[in-house]
């Protein structure tokens, strides 16, 4: 958790730098695309601060008021971040369409290209560091954070290509199109990068309502359960597996019959140990609850 907060602080500092740079450069050059890039960084900064606050709050031990933990806050944060980014991209898309209908705008290309080079290098470096760290820590919040930097870096790359295109068009008979390149890049960027926050929003919403974990995780656990059923002559079982933030909730109810080879609490605990050991390869905190009953109604 401490490493996660340090990385979020790094992201916040980077967001502040590129927010100020992008907004100032965008206003100075009258570029909607650079202003969009700076606005994206500013919103990313605010969202990073929110993530830092939530991580600090989750660090506080309060099992009396939150007996099942606070892991649900993780997908909620991702939902908030994704919703804000969807709104921002949508508003920028609409504003750029208006600019095109009004005849476009003219900008100073050489300074705009300099900004994009700085942004590509900076955003790309932070993205790679955040992405690798999110994999090591298995953090959805850091993954969402790295996606933000990836989007920002790709936006800058697209802008760089667009501005190079403007330089080329200025030397041709199609120079009248130059005024439309800047708002057109915002439209393309906004449309393409809506995919990232929409995907994150859907996945996180599934976690909040405790949907089934991924097929790989679910299949791994059900295989262990089936092996136990066969070994102990258990007639039936009910397995529920859901992922919430960095926690995997596993609920297994074994329905015993008179032929089942389980008679003591020690044997039940042995099965619990087996399930726990068999799921150690899953890099998530686990909430494991295994019960045994002869009455099916307590399992369903």
Question: Brief overview, please?
Answer:
By secondary structure, the protein is mainly α. It has helices at 2-29, 32-59, 73-101, 109-137, 140-169, 178-193, 195-208, 215-232, 265-278; strands at 236-244, 247-255, 285-293. Helix content is 69%, strand content 9%.
Question: What labels describe this entry?
Answer:
300 residues, mainly alpha, Alpha-lytic protease prodomain-like, Alpha-Beta Plaits, three-stranded mixed β-sheet
Q: Look at the structure and give the mean pLDDT.
A: 84
Shape: elongated
By DSSP (H or I, 4+ residues per run), the number of helices equals 9
Question: Distance between the terminal alpha carbons, to the nearest Å?
Answer: 36 Å
CATH second-level architecture of the largest domain: Up-down Bundle
**Main sheet properties:** 3 strands, mixed
CATH level 3 topology of the largest domain: Alpha-lytic protease prodomain-like
Helix and strand composition category: mainly alpha
Beta-strand segment tally = 3
Strand order of the largest sheet: 1-2-3
Sequence of secondary-structure elements: HHHHHHHHEEHE
Radius of gyration: 26 Å
Binned strand content: 5-15%
Give the domain tally.
Answer: 2
Unreliable sequence segments: none
Residues in helix, %: 55-70%
CATH homologous superfamily caption of the largest domain: Cation efflux protein transmembrane domain
CATH class of the largest domain: Mainly Alpha
